[in-house]
Design brief:
This protein is α/β, with parallel strands linked by helices. It is 47% helix and 13% strand. The chain has a four-stranded parallel beta sheet, sandwiched between helices. Helix 3 (62-69) runs antiparallel to helix 4.
């Protein structure tokens, strides 16, 4: 997380620009769950590559993710997949590097998400707000990780559409 997989996203975005498939000043990175993490990490790791970023139900604090997973059956899986070195987890967690963000960000997260806790989005949103960065946060009432409620799907896609139109013209 945040290393080679993130570099692959950067390489892909740069390739799209080089091939004239995408315009550098018209790209926004959008993702959900791990993709939400990747969108937030892109805003930190390559702050000039995208014009904006949207994270739906994304992880922003790997350290907290691993420490809370220890309470559950997936403890060994989390450690093997993500790691358990505190300093390394912090280095790969966008929430600890909000100061590097210089693009508008939108975070959307369900209040009842049991896959990725809403605190994951709140952590980075709070850091960005403390730094007076351009950030918007929408917490979906009764929302889960899968946009199971029709009303929340409408809220999410309308917010994304509005955000993208504003920042990409």
């Amino acid at each position: 997380w945040g290393l080679t997989m993130q570099d692959d996203l950067t390489d892909a975005a740069n390739w799209l620009v080089e091939q004239n498939i995408a315009l550098k000043d018209k790209m926004c990175i959008v993702g959900a769950s791990y993709g939400g993490y990747a969108a937030a990490m892109a805003a930190v790791k390559t702050p000039d590559l995208f014009k904006c970023a949207i994270s739906f139900a994304g992880v922003t604090d790997l350290k907290k993710l691993v420490s809370t997973s220890r309470r559950f059956v997936n403890s060994n899986f989390a450690k093997k997949q993500i790691g358990d070195d505190s300093a390394d987890l912090k280095a790969r967690s966008p929430a600890y590097h909000a100061d590097k963000v210089n693009i508008p960000m939108l975070f959307i997260h369900g209040e009842d998400d049991v896959v990725v806790a809403v605190e994951q989005s709140e952590a980075m949103v709070n850091e960005l707000q403390d730094l007076n960065k351009d950030v918007k946060f929408i917490e979906l009432e009764n929302g889960d990780h899968y946009l199971s409620i029709q009303r929340n799907r409408h809220i999410t896609f309308k917010a994304m559409d509005t955000f993208l139109k504003k920042h990409l013209n």
